[in-house]
Write a structure and sequence with these properties.
Low-confidence stretches: none
Structural class: alpha+beta
């Protein structure tokens, strides 16, 4: 859980729910998720169980043990090859954007250095240093927080 850099289509507008909040969305396509779910479902139907599956679980239907098939609303509608821009997402939920999309990583770093992300802006927090944002953007990920010498720091702050 934390922040990650996702590649998105040019001028991407992340979908919103009826109430105006961003729709949480995993960083994979629905088709990929369905394919993986079906593969595991057919293994289950053929009696193949993961090593960590308890004896008590073997009588269950696959969806009772692992969950229902994927829901299209929670997966991105675009393919990898369509994604050329950069955007920061929080990953505490399935993922919602916390910056606008940008054509280059440098544009994203400039924005973050000036403004921070949407949560920073909402709380009135000052942005981190350009160097910290560079490490985050080029590294593609920062955890929500870390403990460093007994002190809690945000993941980006710790970079």
């Amino acid at each position: 859980m934390g922040r990650e850099i996702r590649k998105v289509p040019v001028n991407w507008e992340h979908p919103k729910k009826m109430n105006g909040d961003y729709q949480p969305m995993r960083d994979r396509t629905f088709e990929e998720a369905v394919k993986d779910w079906k593969t595991e479902f057919f293994k289950w139907e053929n009696g193949e169980r993961p090593n960590y599956c308890s004896e008590d679980s073997t009588h269950l239907e696959y969806w009772e043990w692992d969950g229902h098939p994927p829901d299209r609303e929670y997966y991105r509608p675009y393919k990898d090859e369509d994604a050329t821009w950069f955007q920061v997402y929080e990953t505490v939920s399935e993922g919602t954007p916390v910056t606008p999309p940008f054509a280059t990583e440098e544009d994203l770093i400039d924005y973050l250095t000036k403004n921070g992300d949407f949560w920073d802006q909402k709380r009135g927090d000052k942005p981190y240093s350009r160097e910290q944002y560079q490490k985050f953007v080029y590294g593609k990920y920062a955890p929500s927080f870390v403990f460093e010498n007994g002190v809690v720091k945000s993941g980006i702050e710790s970079l």
